[in-house]
Specification:
Pyridoxamine 5'-phosphate oxidase N-terminal domain-containing protein, Split_barrel_FMN-bd, 3 domains, Pnp Oxidase, Chain A, 7 helices, Pyridox_Oxase_N, about 220 residues, 7 strands, alpha+beta, about 45% helix
């Protein structure tokens, strides 16, 4: 599906800009190689696992007046799931109730999604068609996408039929870590510090007893 991303994203105006700035030949060669290769059918386990590990992503849509809008979507890791080879989905929770993305996609269902892995400096871009469902409209989605342990009210379920995706290079991605990631990385250090403090306390107590015995003998 990567060659599909080039086909959709590299419009004539984009190709003209690439040509003007000297990158068109490299991208044309890459697109030709992708077309000559056996086409990948849908999202592989690599994409599915990457998406399932994320706790947020960015979702872009365009209004009927032509203005783009980018929205952050978040939840517990794994709240976005691969439903089949070309479809992903998630539960949408009640938020600020502006419904900008909902309104935009009611007119034009084409969206772009960006999934980021800041610690490992990786990003995955997807293009697709978004479709919303009310909670009682698709019981099968409610069963597959519900997050009963997450304390948030589900407003609707959303699926995206993925048309194309592409992996980005890691350039200029600054590593960032969540509080949970920092806590997990620091856990061995905290354990080691506790062990050393306990050892010091034990040694300190022994020294005090020795000094007490010496004073008694004197």
């Amino acid at each position: 599906m990567r060659h599909g991303f080039f086909d959709l994203a590299f419009t004539p105006s984009v190709q003209a800009e690439q040509l003007r700035r000297g990158s068109r030949a490299a991208y044309a060669a890459a697109a030709a190689r992708d077309h000559d290769a056996v086409a990948e059918e849908g999202l592989s386990d690599a994409e599915a696992d990457f998406i399932a590990a994320r706790d947020s992503f960015y979702l872009a849509s365009v209004s009927e007046t032509g203005w783009p809008y980018v929205q952050h979507r978040g939840g517990p890791p794994g709240f976005v799931r691969r439903l089949d080879g070309v479809t992903i989905g998630w539960a949408e929770f009640v938020g600020n109730r502006q419904y900008v993305t909902a309104g935009n996609t009611a007119v034009d269902d084409r969206v772009s999604l960006l999934f980021m892995d800041y610690p490992h400096r990786q990003r995955l871009k997807l293009l697709g068609h978004l479709h919303p469902y009310e909670p009682d409209e698709r019981p099968d989605l409610a069963e597959r996408l519900a997050l009963p342990a997450y304390r948030a009210r589900v407003e609707r379920f959303v699926t995206v039929a993925v048309e194309a995706f592409d992996w980005n290079c890691p350039q200029h991605i600054t590593p960032r870590f969540t509080a949970d990631e920092v806590e997990a990385a620091a856990a061995p250090l905290h354990t080691r510090i506790a062990e050393l403090e306990a050892r010091l306390c034990t040694q300190g107590g022994g020294d005090a007893r020795d000094r007490s015995l010496e004073a008694h003998d004197a």
